[in-house]
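dumping this here before i forget
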Amino acid sequence: MTMVVNCAVYSRRNGHKLRDIPVDLISESLVEEDTFIWLGLHEPDVALMQQVQDEFDLHDLVVEDAHRAHQRPKLEVHDDVLFIVMHTARMVGEEAKLGETHVILGPRFVVTIRHGASQSYSSVRERCEHNPKLLMRGPGYVLYAVMDFITDNYFPVVESYRSHLRSLEGAIFEGSFRRRTIRRLYDLKRDLVLLRLAASPMQDICNELMHIDTALVSDDMNPYFRDIYDHVIRINDAVDAITEMLSAALDVHLALITVGQNEVVKRLASWAAILAVPTLIASLYGMNFEVMPELRWSYGYPVALGMMTVLCLLLFRRLRRAGWL
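structure:
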């Protein structure tokens, strides 16, 4: 896969794309007035990041962090450059995959770097190019478009988890113990925690962007970042609600299993009590004594059997009324 996805020069005067350029011509294009460059990378290697550093004159720490994946979500300021790390989420089949996007924002450029399971930003680029009035705002608007795209991609993942929970409800209320159901509930809860950790820091990033003292992000972009902030709150609330429902479902499932086990114990105890009656009578007549009531009576055996039967039926009826059988 190509590491350089796109590299283009845009006009700040009319918001139109001027031309595509190779990476080695970036420094020459930066001297043009009223323009900015948008460079898109996908899992660049060390050599490419070194070339990007030379072209944009980036800080060593920015390049080091941008090249490495598995960074925590954050916003850092290095001289006149912002470095932002965001975690992304996307559905791959029926499974949610997490990735990372690093954004390097300067006065005349914006660099987006994708790591892992992250969707291409070609649709974001197309949307920006179809809104030249907004693209005239420069790199700050590109940053908003990328963040908005990342945030919107959380919603399908949340909806998928919600549907997954609904599909588990049938298995939950069956009442029988299934290790697979418990495993699926645990996996879903773990995935929700990971999604919460990915989405929640976006609130802090948006809040910092709205209050940061830098010319890289103008004040007129605050409403846009506030909109992302509201979306992230909705996502976090939805994740919390699903997590709470999941915990309740797990408790209900375990409670139903316990109730089912109690029913089994009650039935076993009931049949044990019924069988104890003939066992008691038979054990008495099985004792080796010569002098016993009705021992030599010709009707003693059928009377004993009848007594056992009657007592067992009475006990069965009583336990059946009590709901034990």
